Amino acid sequence: MRHDYRMSEMDLGGGAAPVLRGRFLYNEPMKKYVSWRAGGAAQRAYIPADLEDLGWLVRSVPAHEDIHLVGLGSNLLVRDGGVRGTVIMTSGALGELSLQGDGTVRAEAGVACAKIARFSVQQGLQGGEFLAGIPGTVGGALAMNAGCHGSETWQFVTAVETIDRAGERRIRPPQDFSVAYRKVAGPSGEWFVAGHFRFRPGQAGDGKGVIKQLLAKRGASQPTQLPNAGSVFKNPAGDFAARLVEASGLKGVSGLSNDLRELLAREGEDGRARLAVELFCYRVRKYVGAYLAVLEGADALLFAGGVGEHLPSIRSRICGPLAWCGLRLDATRNEAARGEAPCSIGAPGAPVQAFVIPSDEERIIAWDTARCLSGRPG
Fold it and tell me: What structural domains and CATH numbers belong to the chain?
């Protein structure tokens, strides 16, 4: 829902009340604004018209109310319970990008890092190509010293612009901040609203090939066209997260297959396959156990939709540790159930029974797809 909002004179200490030129949105689902496509609603969201409008907004928000600035929402996880206070959306709002008279590039907080990379190359500047690999905005890049491919944001910063809750804007030099790996500390109570960057002189267009290579590399290693977590590991001192993930055998959990039948066949000889199966069973147990605890018990547990529907050993490994809640399987019945027909696999007299209910997921998906394409109602 969109609302216009006019600040009262009391908001401005009795002065003339301007009309905010941005947009308010109430109970706005944050999953629309984050790359993980998950999370609850913002109590109030605001899309400012420009920096001046942002200044009026922040000084109108009561001192006890939280203010959060969000750019592209890359790798931002919002809790299901939502966000109290005001969330300010900078992407597409604070979007000014220009080449200054001194040769620096000025970009407001809502400018995408990739846009700076392309702009600097067009202006005959080099060194900023790495920004094409950062899926965020200037505000976030400044706040965490974002970096990739051997370069970091603050290597190129000559000045930053900030704003506080009183709406006062300042231009600060890098010396006002303590900058480290993925960490920036500075004056409290201020947010970044723009950055000034100095890149090396070069020839217009020279960096296009570099940007293309970086984007191709990222596209090959991450599902960029789907909701995803990207690369969120921080490198420990003296090592690289990617190397540790590879060495641990946890990459893709197994790095072998997402078919449980194949993993079961290989777990006796491959520790990665065994780990994947154990992790799958643990996760199912965790959620089943949590629901049973919250519901204070249940009458039955159903296996369907590929979660143990055809695999007796998976059902046994899931249910074994859940005996505390009264869930016990009949070994003979469980072994005989292969998802061909509905059947009971619970032990006689067990407080919580278990059943296998076959389902044809592919047929259901095909039917729903055909229905959507034809425009027929559900």
Answer: 2-89 (3.30.43.10), 97-220 (3.30.465.10), 260-361 (3.30.420.40)
pTM over 0.70: no
Q: Are strands 178-180 and 183-185 parallel, antiparallel or unpaired?
A: antiparallel
Contact 157, 197 (CB under 8 A): yes
pLDDT value for 2: 35
Closest CA to 94 of 58, 31, 139, 128: 139
Q: Which string of DSSP letters, residue by residue, matches 343-356?
A: EE-BPTT-SBEEEE
Measured distance CA(191)–CA(5) in Å, rounded: 23
pLDDT band per the 50, 70, 90 thresholds, residue 10: very low
| 101 dihedral zone (left: phi>0; alpha: psi -120 to 50; beta) | alpha
Cα angle, residue 124 at apex, residues 211 and 184 outer, rounded to 5°: 65
d(CA 166, CA 13) in angstroms, rounded, equals 12
Nearest to 135 by CA among 222, 47, 38, 245: 222
> What integer pLDDT is reported at residue 142 of this predicted model?
98
What are the phi and psi torsion angles at 45 (to 5°)? -120, 150
**pLDDT tens, position by position, 184-217:** 999 999 999 999 999 999 887 788 888 888 888 7
